Amino acid sequence: MDLISVIVPVFKVEQYLKRCVSSILNQSYKNIEIILVDDGSPDNCPEICDDLSSKYSNITVIHKKNGGLSSARNAGLEKCNGRYISFVDSDDFIDKNFINRLYECIIKYDADVAMVMYEETFFEKKVSKIVSKKERIFINEEVEKAFLRLKIDSVCVGLYSSEIVKKYRFIEGKTSEDIPFNFEIFREIKSFVFIPEKRYYYFYNPKSISNGILDKNMLNYLDFRKQIFDYYSEKNNECKKIAEALYVRAAMGLQTHMAIYGISKDLNEKECKRIFSSIYRNHRKTFFVEKTIPMSRKLLAILIFDFYGIIKIMRMYIK
Description:
With about 325 residues, the chain is of the alpha/beta class.
């Protein structure tokens, strides 16, 4: 059986780290190496990593200065030896058959990448029962369409061929770095398997960088969506329409976040609202026509762009 590398960036997650690593050690697929990348964590994570490494021969630890999530993953890519590579965030955990299900599909279809779905959860004992479903294979020109249609953002739900993935690195110093990373890979690969089963568990951590008030880092998401839209605009094909709709969806998501959680002091709420609303006005026709956008998101767009003031007042009242 092929060696599979699992890269785990570690930073200020001492209360979740052992749960994450245990879920990887308990995989039904056994030929796994675990790369724990201590990204200069100021808590007890470095000691926990070293303790785990002393107990399990398949765990390797990298200690480095703090450089962020992308920097930690890149360090892991330099060190790993597996034929296939997976990424698991250290406050999350995975189903015991996560690796095996992905690997089986990659071998079955001779695919470059396989991905499952994720479930957001607060407690590992309250996850939904997994329902087996038929996987879907995408070949050649259908791969890029699948990347857009399925709105593939996170790298954590996938298993990648190291021959391909080790050519690339995550952009350092920015959040939402998974999007451009996947974008590069999905333009190269020739085959992709999507498994509509929730086998990755995203733990809702209130202290996570993805939660809280809208800040400058979150605007990276909009920038990356614009870059993808600009790329396909020159091609004027089916991907252009999907990328355009996703660009609007990104603006809607940020405006929703701003309305509910507020905005940091280094951003101007009026200017952000102007930018998001401008994107919505200029591309709303494609957004509402595009079939890959759920009706719930289309209704939310109307609510958040046409009644933003009311939602903001509700937020202030709740506070």
